[in-house]
Amino acid sequence: MTGIHQQRIAEQIRQVLSELFLREMRDPRLQGLTVTEVTIDRELQFAEVYVHALGEDERQEEVMAALDRASGFLRREVGRVVNLRRTPELRFKWDPIFAQAEKIDRLLDSLDIPDEASDEASDEASDEASGAVAEEAYSEDEN
After folding, report:
1. How far apart are the first and last CA of the chain?
2. pTM above 0.70, yes or no
């Protein structure tokens, strides 16, 4: 098996699970759930499914409990759509990337970055100062 084959199967699993969460799942705890990524091992026995409920990190525990309960149904549906000898075991994990991105945004917002206008003024002042130094050095060379 090549990495490309694994990627194709992982993408198929991601699409199937996304459709299931969007259309089939009746559990209200799984509403608004997004499958962000699926990785699969070389032997195609285990698939790690990264999920996230946008803007709702506080729901992590209840979402993971609902996924644990629904994993048999989800695996059966994936096996029905994706043609493999053996359907991989689905291991659900909460994707922390959105919380990390939000933290980075907050850090960037807290930085005190001066405006471009004040940068240009300080650049002009330093250019004038360096020009004066250069003129002084040139006049000394002539003498």
Report:
1. 79
2. no
> What are the domain boundaries of the chain?
3-106, 112-142
In sequence order, what DSSP letters do the residues of 102-125 get, joined into one string?
HHHHHHHHHS----HHHHHHHHHH
Report CA 60 to chain centroid distance, whole Å.
Answer: 16
pLDDT, tens digit, 9 for 90 and up, residues 63-104: 899 999 999 999 999 999 998 889 999 999 998 877 777 788
The answer to whether residues 62 and 18 touch, using CB atoms and an 8 Å cutoff, is no
- Do the beta carbons of residue 32 and residue 54 sit within 8 Å? yes
> At a CB cut-off of 8 Å and minimum separation 6, what does 42 contact?
1, 6
Span 103-119, pLDDT tens digits: 888 888 888 777 776 55
Q: How many angstroms separate the Cα of 90 from the Cα of each of 25, 45, 73, 81, 135?
A: 16, 9, 11, 15, 73
With tokens 């945004």, the residue in question is 105
- CATH assignment, 3-106: 3.30.300.20
CB burial of residue 51 (10 Å; 0-12, 13-18, 19+)? buried
**Calculated CA dihedral for residues 45, 28, 35, 5, nearest 10 degrees:** 30
